[in-house]
Specification:
0% strand, 78% helix, 247 residues, Serine Threonine Protein Phosphatase 5, Tetratricopeptide repeat
Length: 247
Amino acid sequence: MELSGLVRYVADKGLSAVDLSALDESLRAELLARVGERYVDTGRLSDAVKAYEMAGNIEGLVMVGDICVQRGSLSDAMRAYEMSGRELPREQLVQVGDICLERGWLSDATRAYEMAGNAGGLVKIGDEYMERGWLLEAMQAYGMARNTDGLAKVGDICIEMGSLPGAMRAYKTVGRELTSDELVRVGHACLKMGLLSDAMRGYQMAGYTEGLIRLGDTFMEHGQLSDAIKAYEMAGRVDLANFLRQF
């Protein structure tokens, strides 16, 4: 049956806006398959998946799934294959990840590589995030890949930036704690940037009394008397802390 006019109308109107229940089953399936083809031709892959799904057209779903893989549309590919009863093979997941990475779609690439168990791809994602300065995302990607070198690199950058929580999280994922020297470096970086509370935490964890005393002096210069008392107490300078309590 010639359905070109009807196909165009249904496709343009949208499947959710058209009631096809009046058509017999065979005509409905044929119409939906043709609508699916039109959606594929016009690049509307999500709609194509829906059309073939409604038609129960397995071949159409597999075809759209393959096209989605080629275009890096992971969610549509997975849905199409799922509806067809076919799983997305590991090699195709890697292919999707490669396409997404090349196009800069890092979230989709990460998902594809993770599902494929492709550590090499996840390391590439981590490297790309590092270049963009997105340390949390890089840490997550390296963590998925169990890449200790990448995690340590993130931890080192966090130390230089004075990000104590970031450094601790990165090294914890690697399986080690920050050393006293690293904690002192974090404290110095925080102090330099004016992050006095974070500096105090770093110095305290390191047991670095010299830094805590210096920090107490800095708090005094800023008129933060209670914080200065706390810093001096952490440094074991109870005499200075008690002296300041009279003010």
